[in-house]
Batch of 3 targets.
Target 1
Amino acid sequence: LAIVGKDNEPLYLRDFPLPNSTRNNLNAPLTGNDHDSNDNVSNAQPNDDMKQKYDDPFGFFTESMPKNTGESHSSSLRNQFICHAALDRFYELTGPNSGNRWRTPGATGSEAMWVGLLCPVEELRVYGYLTNTNIKFMAVIEDNDEAGTQLQLREAELKTLFASLHELYVEYTLNPFTKIKAKIVSRRFDESVRKSINAFNGVYTLNW
């Protein structure tokens, strides 16, 4: 999942994998390894394997290395590259020369912000959503529907997911202590995002 600001500054980039070992534990609460902006960061140094795993060439989460092990506020290197590349397609579809052709005629509300499929990358599909303030939401999902028979259902569920994430983002920015254009590091935001994604995972397996 990626949330990118109007000037293409990264606000939130996080993987929400669903391995087989955790399928039956979707609603488990975040552990103490997850930290909010006011939490103390462990002094333990990551080993070489962790440094490689959490390599961050685009500077998305330089300050958000996980404590020891556990859930991360970061994203895999591969998904960072995918999201970075998808921004070019995002601009092609929604930029000043697009003439708003990406918008569904007559659409209102969250429907009018739905961009749809940005690009396929091997077994993954990248979908986009653009707010009226030019905040970009991107979801990288694993496509298990090779025949395309569930396309309409998938897109309907994605629209619901994006609308929910948009609402959470607005709620987050309404906090008077929120730093606009700063990376989102919030336990409450993470919990709420996870719940929304778990609801989507009830229909599709995601690889965020």
Target 2
Amino acid sequence: LGRAPPGIRECMLFRLLSRARGFYTARAEARKREEKRNVAGPHIMVALDESPYSAHVIKWGVDNVFDKASKITFVHASELSGAVTFSVTTSEMDFNTGIVKRKVDEQATKLAIEKGQKLLELHSERAGEWGFNPDEQKLLLASRNSNVKYALLEYVDETKPDLILCGSRGMGPLSRAFLGSVADYLVHNAQCTVTVVKEPWQKQQDAKPTAYS
């Protein structure tokens, strides 16, 4: 600001003040919404992943049910799979056999935790901007012999939430038949109400191909 001409400096200062005012106004509104939450309300669990659908799930919760919740838990389940790259020290290498002594699962777990924590922090910041902060963030790690669906259901059976929110990742009938989806699995196996939040109708319409004659 110091090197800018007087007119531009005033304009930049006005923009900074406007942004700051908007930030504090949003924070004040968020506090008011938090204060209105029902302490005797349901425990809502929100199952989130790295797909764009998670933002729609959070926004739907903000607009429809978060103000009725006594507790909001954001949950992300990460699967320990895929290739893992790491450097090897001489103490970890058996030069006679060429076998690395370190367990790959240790590195995979570390990477999954780091990625999962960043994802939960990102979703929590987004929810805070919309007026609600989760009371709890939970990262679940599904073993290589398991699946995120089973890890989520096990956590649901343990914590017994009243409502689960999850997103539809847009798989077609054929994909669901062969792979199944987390949403389908929770709907059929969880012992509580499950709400599947789909993509907003307008965006679905915009995504459809246009036919030309």
Target 3
Amino acid sequence: AVGWEANAQGRFLPRSLDLSATLDPRRLASQAVALNLRLMKWRAAPSLDLKSIADCRCLLVGAGTLGCAVARGLQAWGVRQITFVDGSRISYSNPVRQSLYKFADCVDGGKPKAAAAAAALKEIFMDTVAAAAAILIPMPGHPPLKKEGMEEEAEEAMKKAFEEFEALVMGHDVVFLLTDTRESRWLPSLLAAAHGKLAITAALG
């Protein structure tokens, strides 16, 4: 009988197969990206360990022009765990230079950069595990702004920012230094060295 198969007891019954999962857009995207990565490995870098890259936890310090570009590059090469650290907001001049933002992100004072960048990465590829931390990194030569009568609160806020950032460095494998001043890269460099993390910089200023 066409379309019928014998089951374990030898009885001929209709058998069905649910193919809906193979038509799921998210699953199709995952399969297409995985195939593309295997082709990249085959043609450009046969020794590339795609699983190690996928498991690598990357901390991007700065979600500006460099941060957006590096994040997209990491995503293209199979990195799936990316955390942005940036305490600023998106301004009207940013979207033309910073590829993860658009005009709507600028209005009403601008969205927080780190959160908007993480959300954009998830929109581009839903399997990306993207997180954000709106932290103002303590910098040498830049003491906390102390309003009269609130000196202790300002120092506590800086101490809290330091502790939160150190925890992020400890929880990641690679730290990318993507801010535009040497002062803002000093503490991330120091913490990366102290905790034995690989630090990569793409900034010149």
